[in-house]
Specification:
single chain, PH-domain like, 10 strands, alpha+beta
């Protein structure tokens, strides 16, 4: 895809790039570009109160600015280091499409996709214009950190590592997940709910444009296909159906009221160990969309879903970070329903169903356990306390 100027670049060009935006978070990244001789350019991604901006890493001038309302989807590419066991028909394809660690993409409603990759970084000193920022780790930084950790003397004049968290070097994957966690949090604070996936939205999979809603009749067709899924069908057919549904139905965008698709997908969760990792993620993303409707949210307390709910709790400790985060998100949507007409009785019933004594013990042990990736640990802690204290 050719790199061309878009509305975001126009906004940046027509405003003074010397004026500093009030940034709450920023992180250095590599932006993949066909126009660059290296294939990428160094950028700083910053978050303002309502936009995502790109800054030049040297001059710190704003290069592009995109409103978070223009985001269609965020792609979290699977890391090469921790893949789930895929079915035989997917293994060859997976090996041919490995992505560098820390890679993600932002798909905009205009149809444009921007790809980025995070690098090893650490927390830097705050400033009046930056709430929290990260800097790329150099060899000199690693040597300084080793000396800082190995000595107990406080006579060092270097103050870069005096900030809380600065002595923890984040891996590319951990840095990416911290950045995306902040993007999702920013969107939620603005009452904008964006979707995510582990693969780019296929061409022609969306009915209409990325900026238009799906026709109700097509929604009904997609739900019927979902309801008819079974383990007797091939993984390719299951993947195609789930992709079509997730590409066309945004979070809180489903208008149809149908519980059959939810029950079908929960049956798959009961036997998720028999599924390829990418199919499991697609099922979790579809469940997120279905749980945004009140009839499906009310269905959570049904006793036939107990086994699937317990499996969802177990999945939060999966070695595949996308499965773990997807399962935690589904659990949250099962107990917290965003609606103008909240029913406290249903909310309480769902919480009792999800967190009965055995389930709660299992979840706390997994949520409080040390994770291999520091970012996943933060995810679980945040979600756990959301469950306890959400009003």
């Amino acid at each position: 895809m050719e790199d061309t100027e878009d509305a975001g670049e126009f906004v940046a060009l027509t405003t003074s790039r010397d004026i500093a935006f009030p940034v709450s978070f920023e992180m250095p990244v590599k932006k993949f570009s066909k126009t660059s001789s290296k294939g990428f350019s160094s950028r700083i991604i910053g978050l303002t109160s309502s936009a995502i901006i790109e800054r030049d890493i040297v001059t710190r001038r704003t290069v592009t600015s995109h409103s978070i309302a223009d985001i269609f989807n965020i792609v979290v590419y699977p890391s090469t280091a921790s893949h789930s066991e895929y079915a035989e028909e997917y293994k060859e394809e997976e090996d041919d499409n490995n992505q560098p660690d820390g890679m993600f993409a932002i798909e905009f409603k205009s149809g444009r996709t921007k790809k980025f990759s995070c690098e090893e970084c650490f927390v830097t000193v705050r400033s009046p214009s930056i709430g929290i920022g990260f800097s790329k780790v150099t060899k000199q930084d690693k040597d300084l950190l080793k000396r800082k950790v190995s000595t107990t003397s406080s006579s060092s004049t270097d103050t870069r590592f005096n900030v809380a968290g600065a002595t923890e070097i984040l891996s590319p994957n951990a840095a990416r997940n911290v950045l995306l966690c902040n993007i999702f949090d920013l969107c939620n604070m603005n009452n904008i709910y964006i979707s995510w996936s582990t693969m780019e939205t296929p061409l022609a999979s969306k009915e209409g444009t990325w900026n238009t809603s799906t026709h109700p009749e097509y929604e009904e067709i997609l739900l019927k296909k979902m309801s008819s899924l079974s383990t007797t069908k091939s993984f390719v057919e299951i993947e195609r159906t789930l992709l079509d549904f997730n590409s066309n139905i945004p979070l809180y965008g489903l208008k149809q009221r149908d519980r059959r698709a939810f029950s079908t997908l929960m049956k798959f969760i009961e036997n998720y160990k028999d599924l390829p990792g990418n199919i499991t993620v697609l099922i979790l993303l579809a469940l997120l969309r279905l749980l945004c409707t009140k009839p499906v949210f009310d269905e959570v307390a049904n006793s036939q879903h107990k086994a699937a709910i317990l499996n969802l709790i177990k999945m939060t400790d999966s070695s595949d970070k996308n499965i773990a985060f997807g399962a935690a998100s589904v659990l949250k949507n099962m107990v917290v329903h965003i609606s103008e007409h909240k029913n406290a009785r249903i909310d309480s019933s769902n919480r009792r169903t999800v967190f009965v004594t055995s389930n709660a013990t299992e979840f706390v042990q997994r949520a409080m356990g040390f994770a291999k990736e520091v970012c996943l640990y933060y995810y679980k802690i945040i979600l756990f306390f959301n469950f306890l204290f959400i009003s």
